[in-house]
Amino acid sequence: MTTSAIKKYVVALDQGTTSSRTLIFDQSAHLIASIQQEFKQYYPAAGWVEHDAEEIWQSQLSTLKQALKHAEIDLSHIAAIGITNQRETTVIWDKNTGKPVYNAIVWQCRRSNELCQALKHAGHENEIKTRTGLVLDPYFSASKIKWILDNVDGIRARAERGELLFGTIDTWLLWQLTEGKVHVTDPTNASRTMLYNIHQQCWDKTLLALFDIPASLLPTVQPSSAIYGVTCLLNPEQPIPIAGMAGDQQAALFGQQCTDAGSVKNTYGTGCFMLMNTGKQAINSTKGLITTLAIGPDGGVCYALEGSVFMGGAVVQWLRDELGLIQHANETAQAAKSVSDNNGVYLVPAFTGLGAPYWQPDARGTLVGLSRGANRNHIIRAALEAIAYQSHEILTLMSQESGINLLELKVDGGAASNDFLLQFQSDISDITVLRPNQTESTALGAAFLAGLAVGFWPNSTALKHTLTIAQQFRPNISGSQRQTLLRGWRRAIEQTLAAI
Ligand SMILES: Nc1ncnc2c1ncn2[C@@H]1O[C@H](COP(=O)(O)OP(=O)(O)O)[C@@H](O)[C@H]1O
Ligand SMILES: O=P(O)(O)OC[C@H](O)CO
């Protein structure tokens, strides 16, 4: 028996914005264990969001240990560990002590907006977009790194002396886990920093100069499926390879095996992130989408178009926590179905501004079309419909910019369990929506990447064989009904933009 023959499992570390999770999969991609731990969010000023990087690491390690214990798995049966992570979130730490020099600045944090505006006014927007595929926005890492270097006492000097390291969360976790403290990221995460040239596929010296960031801070970039190092933290006698890394949305794309040009997935989590694989072609969006690096069939680099909706499933949390209209998210489908239509009510949930394709950080939420007959269920319905309308706008642009008539949309994420939402998405976008058996696509993508690197799965055909579609939602409204609904949504968006 070969060593690989006794390997039965791959572990995925899924480090998200609000929780750290560990999931264990077997060779058929069945979920064997899943442990989740939430951690604290820090809001030190309006629009600022931070995490404690140490707490992220400790919560991640704790879920790893608990998942192994819970599933009663012998370490010798683990083929590899894969990492997937909230993207863009920025950590800088001391390479000798391992201590972060400042809290992690989270992707949602707007503190570097002024810096981005200044770069915009100085005419750098196009150059940045050409090199990185990204819209000049505080969402991405570069302006966050610069903020730390410029605002935390003594940090720039220490960075210039080569004492500090930068990483997105993948890099931070890998560094913590590995023997010899490996300082590496993968192309998908690098492509979110605004410092990586997605065409030449290297750190971009012009952008490092523009943001005034020393190159010594940066990790080495290695493929998303590769053995980066081993961890001996669980048992010094049993090193386990860390063999896959990808940003969570690209991992979900790979987990759904959207590896061919033209395949699309939408993840309905806190926000909604739609990615379309565009193969070897980097499509330069002129309509507010971004171009990003993703993963091809063999784990190598390819391009994708992405549209990020900032308020997705979170709008359901708002119904629950702020309006008190529901007690549980799973009540919403029934409530929405209990009324025959939205009664003219539209909600634009721009609570933290509008993401793609508008990129309007100052927009705020709008509820329009209220009449005397509008009730709780109409508002709940409008909230779910808003998730689908926002996703629809992105899907339409992707289709226009790629020239591909999209016929299928694969979905995953917490809110993808909502049948009303998926049926409405299918109706409004005139597309077949496919919900897989395994909706843990993000973690599965990380597991696939790690498993491929160590031969646990031999190739992409083996990965595809593990996936099945659990449910399909097909369009069930007329073209004129669709046009009427979309007109109402566009009016609501116009009102939101007019109020900025
Ligand atoms: N049945 C449901 N209907 C609508 N939204 C839901 C439902 N179940 C969960 N959600 C939403 O899904 C989100 C959580 O999904 P998840 O994929 O875990 O998100 P994230 O990875 O962004 O934390 C929450 O915002 C929650 O409100
Ligand atoms: O942690 P999530 O699932 O909300 O994902 C966050 C995204 O990666 C941000 O770009």
From TrEMBL:
Q: Which residues form the Carbohydrate kinase FGGY N-terminal domain?
A: 9-255
Per the record, the GO terms for biological process are:
glycerol catabolic process; glycerol-3-phosphate metabolic process
Please tell me where glycerol binds in this chain. Answer: R87, E88, Y139, D248, Q249
UniProt keywords, alphabetically: ATP-binding, Glycerol metabolism, Kinase, Nucleotide-binding, Transferase
In what way is its activity controlled? Inhibited by fructose 1,6-bisphosphate (FBP).
Tell me the residue numbers annotated for binding ATP: T17, T18, S19, T270, G313, Q317, G414
Instruction: Give this protein's Gene Ontology molecular function annotations.
Output: ATP binding; glycerol kinase activity
Pfam family membership, one: FGGY_N
Please name the NCBIfam families in this protein's record.
glycerol_kin, PRK00047.1
Q: Which family does it belong to?
A: Belongs to the FGGY kinase family.
Q: What does this protein do?
A: Key enzyme in the regulation of glycerol uptake and metabolism. Catalyzes the phosphorylation of glycerol to yield sn-glycerol 3-phosphate.
Record's protein name: Glycerol kinase
Q: Which gene underlies this protein?
A: glpK
